[in-house]
Structures are given as structure tokens and as C-alpha cells.
Amino acid sequence: MRLHLAPALIPVLLLLNAGYTSAEASTSGGGLNPPGLQPIINRANVLLSSGHFGDAAKAYSEAIDQSPTDYLLYYKRATAYLSLQRHSSALEDFDKVLSLTSGTFDNAHLQKARIYLKDGAFSLARSSLSAYLKAKKGVREPEVEQLEKDIAEGDRLRGKAEKERRAQLWSACVESASLALRVASHSIEVRNWRAECAVASGDVESAVGDLTRLSNLLPPSTTLLIHTFRLAYFLLPSSPASHNSLKQCLHFDPDSKPCLALHRLSKQLDRSFAQLDELLAKEDWKGAVKLLTGAGAKNELWKRWEEALAEQMKPEQLLPLVPETLLAGHVQSDGKKKKTVMPPIPLPDAAKTSPKRQHLARALCKSYTHLADVAPSSTAYASARTQYCNLLLSLHGCAEDVDGLVGKADSLLGSSSNDDGAWDEAVRLYEKAFEAGGRSDRTVHQKLGKAQRKIKVSKQKDYYKIVGVSRDADAKTIKKAYRKAAKFAHPDKGGSEAKMAALNEAYEVLSNPELRERFDSGEDPMDPQAQAQGGHPFGAGDPFAQFFAQGQRRPFAGPGGFQYQQGGGSFHFSGGF
């Protein structure tokens, strides 16, 4: 693989271009080159200068096998290793260079200082830089001065991050660790702290990135890879990248039981999620509900996810993020091996933050909302809609979820009355959903209008209440209730003209299927404003006019020609009471 050459390696290429080859070094020392050595060196030099560092390192290894005392070969191979970020191998070769040259090859000290800085071994970086300056008799080039500043700043930031990690100042810890990693990019200690603080602060995505990087810096570990997978799969949005660490785990250990078990589990869940997305795309709400809550091994997706989430997100399944055995032998900034005891970190509430769980809750809420619209008399659909839409709105970042707001509003609007302000709250939720949806969802807008009309009507008249029937009463029940109520509303029976007029108006609406449907949808068909707009079905006039039978101004002749008799006159009820 071809890589870009780091600026720190430019002096090496200048050294090569100046003609300092191993062959010349050997000749100057009076030695003879082994047969075939020079072509290998030439090939290695070309590979190094062209950025093919892996192949260059192999070629230099071949040359070293033939000339094991040539310090310049070790130096060049160390340069290739450094470009490959193989710091341990590079340090070994730089130490070999110093050994072969009795510590006089001062540039090896400088390269070691750079490596130690990147690794976060600040004391060792200072020591190597001091050795370099001693060889240079205190002369400080600009790059050396900058290196000194970076070492001091990196060490300061490392100490600051450590204190903040210990004090559980999670956001501050992430910030300090990030600044430290700018100069000490390979510091396992600091990167581990940043991963822990990121998880504790809720930034799981950043933590997964750091753990992935640590899995490359540290020796292979199935435990670390499994921890990375669990965080990525259960706490981040769906992505093929979430499976990368699990693939690495199986590549490292194909027989790993934990990795194989997680592989099977994730495959089963992924298939079910794909099926759910297909059902939702087709608006197959019953099919979606069956997959989520129906009985059977291939269904029960909601239950299976809940069980997997609870099991995989246990603290003992994730902490510590990086096994202590991997960190135990790490060289710290003071050059000594030590164990820093830190307080445990809190994990995010997986039930609240898992994007996949939010997706399932949204699917249930939306499906039951549509099913309840189609079958408004189903208490089971209405109850499930309330349950899952309320759950969805309670999840992290879902307080303004459009589906959740609409479902909850539908449930509130289904209340029998607005005595407790349920309908007013429904209007507020519809408005919120309409805004959250970019004011472009026609369905939400229609529901908002319906709710507003329903409230308006409720504040004016309730024809069902006037007649004394429920909203689901049939025509026969309404007629019977009307006749019963008319006996008490008539002025001759202790009622009043106003009561009788109101009863008659209510019956006129409820006995007419078209008017009743308009009233049920939130419109008052007897509203004078609607009449002024041309929407009143009866036109203007005396509300008692229909009771005037054959010129006789007895205003309470109801449907069916009923009559009351009083003072020699009579009202006749052909339907009877």
C-alpha cells in the first residue's frame, strides 16, 4: 500500500539522495559487501522514497540478514516502521542504531523522542530529546523547540485529563483528552480515558471510534472487540460498520463462542428489522404488529429485542471498556509501569437511548395509530396506541416525534369529554406535530382542524347530551330518547319553549345521517356562522316553525305529528309514547 511520507521523514530521504548508502558506509569502514546486497538496498531505497513502507521494511530486513552490523540499514527500516505506525519495532531499530554507533548517531535520539511523544511517554520523550541536544551541544533548531513545547503541553493535558477522569467531569475530560491526543495520538492511556468519558457523557459514537482505534494499537483481544460491537450495535443507529468489530473478532478467533453467539443473534435481529421495514413501507400495519408482538419464533421482535438489550447492556458485559490485562503492561508518561485506579463509569440508559428500540417503539405507535383510525371502536387498538406512543415520547430525543405526538393526540381526542382539558391538550400536540413535520403533513393538519372544530362544538352544544344518548346510539334509540325527553321539555309539562326548541334542534341533527356525520366530525351544522357562509342546511327562520300544524300555532308538534291536548285544543302523537 502506498502512503504519504510524513514530514519527519524528509531528512531521511535527503540522506538517501545525498548518496549515503550502506554500501558506502561499509566501504568506508573497510568492509566488503556480501554478494547481491547492493541490489536489495537499492530496491529498498526506491520503495521507501516512493512511500511503499511495508515492502521497504521487508527489503531492508533482507539486507540486514546479509549485513547485520550496518546501522544505516536499521535506521532506514526504523523509518519505514515509523511510517507504518509500528512504534515498538521502530524503537527497537533506533536503539540498535545507537548500539552500533556507540550512541553517536544523534538523529536516532530525535526520532525516539518523536515516537515517545506520540505514545504519550512524555518523560522518555524528554530523555531522548535531552540526549539529542547534548549531542548537538545545546543547539536548538525550530523543530526541536516545537517538540519541546509539544512534550510539555502534552504532559500537562494528560495530567489534566487524568484529574477530570478521576473527578468524573466527563465533558471536561473528553475535551482535555482530545487536546492531548493532538500531540500524543498513540497514547493508549489517554485514548482509553477519552473513550470512558465519552460513554459516560452519552457520546457513544466517539467512544466506539476510540475503542476501534485502541483495538489496532493494542494486541488482539476478543473482549475489547465484543465491547465495541455491543456499544455500536445496540446504542448506535443501524449501520454495516457496527459489525466490523465482530468480523475482526471472528477473524482473530473463528472459534470464539461469545463472538459466534453475537453473530447469530445480530443476524436474526437484522433479518427481522429488514422485514419490519418492508411491512412499514407497504403500510401493512397489521403485518407489522404481528411481526412485533405476535406469537412465534419468527415474530415477537419487540420481546426479542428487549431481552437482547437487557442482557447485552449489563455493566458486567461492558466494563471495563478495555480489559485491564491489556493496559497492565502499558508504559505510562513517567516511563514506569503502574496501575491507575479510576472510579467506574456510568453507562447510558440503553432502554432510553437505543435508536433501534426507538425504531421499534415508533413502528408500534404508528401501526396502532393507523389501526385505531380504521377501527375506532376497538379498545384494544386504542389502548395499545396509547401505550406505545407514550413510550415513544418518553425515549431520549423523541419528545417531539411526529408519530408519537399524533398517536397521543388521537388518544386524548378519543376521550368522552373535554372536562379535564384532554381535547385542548390534543390540539396542542397536533400543532406541535405539525410544526415538527415542517408544516407539510396534510394528515396532521386535517386532524388538527378536526380537533379544533370538536372543541368549538363542545363549547357550544352537545346534541347527544341534549337528547340523552351516547355517541354510538342508533336511530331507533335516538328517536325513543327524543320522545321521552319531549315529555319533560314541553312547556305544558314543566319545561320551556327554549328547552323544547333545543331538543328539537338536537333531534333534527341526530336523526339526519348527513348532519350527524358533520357534527361527529367536529362541525355544528346548526351554527349560525355556518349559515351565514351558506353552510346551514335549513336556511333562516323560526326554529319552531316545523311544529306549526295546519296554521295552528302550537309550537311543539314533534316528528310523527304528535299533539298535546290542553284547554279544548289538542296535540296528537301518531307514533305514541
UniProtKB/TrEMBL annotation:
SMART domains: DnaJ, TPR. Residues 462-523 form the J domain. Its main location: endoplasmic reticulum. It comes from the Eukaryota. Pfam families: DnaJ (PF00226), TPR_16 (PF13432). GO terms for cellular component: endoplasmic reticulum. GO terms for molecular function: misfolded protein binding; protein-folding chaperone binding. CDD domains: DnaJ. Keywords: Endoplasmic reticulum, Signal, TPR repeat. It is found in: Endoplasmic reticulum. One of its GO terms (biological process) is protein folding in endoplasmic reticulum. Residues 1-23 form the signal peptide. Residues 332-353, 517-544 are annotated as: Disordered. TPR repeats lie at residues 71-104. PANTHER family: LD25575P. This is J domain-containing protein.
